[in-house]
Specification:
The complex is a heterotrimer of chains A (103), B (343) and C (168). Chain A is an all-alpha fold and 103 residues long. Chain A has a single domain, classed as Helix Hairpins (Orthogonal Bundle). Helix content of chain A is 76%, strand content 0%. The longest helix of chain A is centred in the C-terminal third of the chain and has 31 residues. Helix content of chain B is 69%, strand content 0%. Chain C contains 6 helices and no strands. Chain C is globular. Classes of the chains: A mainly alpha (103), B mainly alpha (343), C mainly alpha (168). Chains in contact: A-C, B-C. Chains A and C meet through helix 1, helix 2 and helix 3 of A and helix 1, helix 2, helix 3, helix 4 and helix 5 of C.
Chain lengths: 103, 343, 168
Amino acid sequence: MTITPAHFIGLAFIIFAIGFLVVVVRKNAIAILMGVELMLNAVNLILLAFNRIHGTMELDGQVFAIFVIAVAAAEAVVGLALILAVYRSLGTVSIDDLSALKG
Amino acid sequence: MHALFGWLNEKWTALIEWLGLPDFIVPAGQMVFDGICVAGFIAVLVLFLIWLERKISGHAQDRFGPMRVGWHGCIQTVADAIKLIQKEDIVPARADRWVYNVAPFVAFAPTVIAFVVIPFGDGVIVKDLNIGILYLFAITSFAVIAIVMGGWASNNKYALLGAFRSAAQLVSYEVPLVLSVLGVLMLAGTMRMGGIVEAQSSMWFIVYQPLGFLIYFVAATAEVNRTPFDIPEAEQELVAGFNVEYSGMKFAMFFLAEFANMFLVAAIATTLFLGGWKGPFQPYIPGEVWFLVKALGLTALIQVFRWTYPRLRVDQLMSFAWKLLLPLAFLNIIVTGLILVLR
Amino acid sequence: MGGWIYTIAFYVCAALLVASALGVLLLRNLFHAGLSLIAALFTMAALFILLGAEFVAGIQVLIYVGAIAVLILFAVMLTQRIAEEKVKRYTRALLPGLAVALALVIVMILVTTGLTGYGFTPFATEDTVGDIGKALLSTYVLPLEVISLLLLGALVGAIVLARKEEEK
């Protein structure tokens, strides 16, 4: 059975779903950040696979993947800084305890 | 060298045909052979480097260093290795066993596969990847993961502190390290290791990139945790840092990776700045010899640093990387770019 | 492209990737989950190479494994006790989350089946790295500048957030 880009895209969907589950379900804020990284990575895989379907000349998909990685880096840095700030002031990173804004 | 490998290759292909085995055995066998070559080279190299380190340390302190086993102690390291193998393999009682056991391999494996793209001579390279230098930096960034794993899993406060310091230091110095190389890449116009060496046929890049070389060498010394940047394993403050709890073969693997890494950064510096295998009297003195002479010379220089400079404090280390090396690396890139455009 | 070695490589990488992604979801110990994430990111880089995107794979390992994963492990070490107590892992959203994820997978499988007709198109050039560089500095020069502004903003923001409150 030959591998086509559709295989890669299907795999990326599975990873995206797992990343989504991590974000929705896990309690720890750092684990949620890990889930976001998984989802961004799945998107990168899809971009690269579509790049192979789409153009012979263009490398648009790869360029976009590089942009996504840059955005992911920025997101991780700010996210972790926020989590550490929260940890310093509240002493926990469990999102169930972060309910100060709840009415 | 080239001829030898070519001959071996021919014989191997003939052997597989003679035995009537399927075709894919040929590349598979070549891969295994390449792997054995690299691993064997690293083992011999590290034995030599440890001896060199002890000799340099000894002479720097006005003593002889190891003298007993072999000529001037040249097989002392073999004796030490045998001793290490016999030692009991201790795992701390409340350690995170899985992570603790895997960490030495995570430290050692990237070092070995990094050697794949080092061009020892004209054509003497296992695989000349088109992302050569990027591959090197990517794969060596696993070192910090190994240190963090080892330090965390040991369940020991000194190990954990060492891991913290090391994570901060390695991530900080990775930035100037990568940026310092960009000047060379702009000059060479390729990331291929062989291509970079070829681009230096007329002149070594250290002449055009003296600042880049300095930044690279300082940052690389920090990347391999050598004095004056050996805060992660400062003996006097942290006992030995992240590897306090390790003993026997697992300790030996960390040790092996450390020395192999030291040669690796020297070899990268040789390839990028010192013309790789190029040198005078080329047909008579083979390129491999030139490469080893340059790389081992740089390695010895790193070892001499240890007995020349005192260790930095953590805050000095950080401000040195972010406030001095990083702006200088940017300056180097801007000046190189301007000259390339205006020329 | 390919042959059966390619097929085997894809399935091995895919299995490793799904297993390590599930590790991020299921592992109780957060440090282990972080290591599992590193394994997932590294396997992802291997898949990128299978797609012929060596440069992106190199960037992936350099940025994710060398920087982001280390930061995440750092944060885990700062916020967790070394011998972590066993706490509940999941929020109340477990069942709804599972349902939504399942729906997501089903929709996506339906989408994917429409794509099976496409094969790999080969690259026009050997020098993909050079072409990416040219694309970044010609067609995509504006996004590139925006990204650098974003990174600068993230840098400043992280420093402001992370530094200790100074006495006024």
